[in-house]
Amino acid sequence: MQLYQRDAIEAAVKLDRDALTTVEAGFAALGRGEVVQPPILSMAIEESNGEVDVKTAHIRGFERFAIKVSPGFFDNPKLGLPSLNGLMMVFSAKTGLVDAVLFDEGYLTAVRTALAGAIAAKHLSREDSRRVAVLGAGEQAELQVRALQLIRDVDTLDVWARRREQAEAYAERMQDQGFTVRVHDSVKAACAEADIVVTTTPARQPILTAQDLPEGVHVTAMGSDSPEKRELDESVMTRADAFVCDTRAQSEHNGELKAYAGGEPPFKVYELGRVIADEQRLRVSPSSITVCDLTGTGVQDTAIANYALSRLGL
Description:
This protein is an alpha/beta fold. Helices cover about 30% and strands about 25% of the residues. A hairpin with a 4-residue loop joins β4 and β5 (about 65-75). The chain is globular and about 55 Å long. This is Ornithine cyclodeaminase. Pfam families: OCD_Mu_crystall. It comes from Modicisalibacter xianhensis.
């Protein structure tokens, strides 16, 4: 069994096209029915304002499968500690023996989450998309944009966050990376000229409505990953010409489809893996509006863990 620390993992795995291709192949395998993926195991630790999620999947033909443990303790910054952490245990798919433990501190999760957003945009956004509205100003607000650069010529960002000082700090960081960035005081203003909208918040009430969407926009919503969170008003989903999620079951429990709990949504639901595997073209015109809800899947974790080990020489 090999043990790898974050420094080595971060040196081996970058936010690049090879990593994107690996995660995209995982989604395609899911769409073809070649993945065993149980439901997420979630546990709340309310007295510490914490939660723990466990995700796993086996991709048929892969040498290894991963089990990821991802704790989030949201009062940690008051103690000078990061709020997110985690590790991946990687097992042989032939013997069940542990091949490696990746003490990545959540790094691989951050990478595969950003790549999933880029993969969604690759299949759903206009090819000439250059301007991105980012709702939120945290780690994923940066990584999602960097991942989008792998598939689109993004050069202009519009940012909104609940706290303007955080949006301004984000704008400064992204300007240093060469982007033109504008900070806005409202979601509507931030989205007015967007080709792509990315929501990266822990919102518990919807922040984006259909009135905020310009024609032809693609929306990637990745903040709603638990039953308590929501970023999209129902009008966004009903306005869309195509609604896609990573898995329907997870979207209904953790993601945006829980808005329709107990009933059938008034639109067709597509899954991203099937869209990729079947080469579905859901954007029928330049004015089409597309939405993708990403809750994070075990197949992404197994895909990125196998990729990491291949880069680490195992």
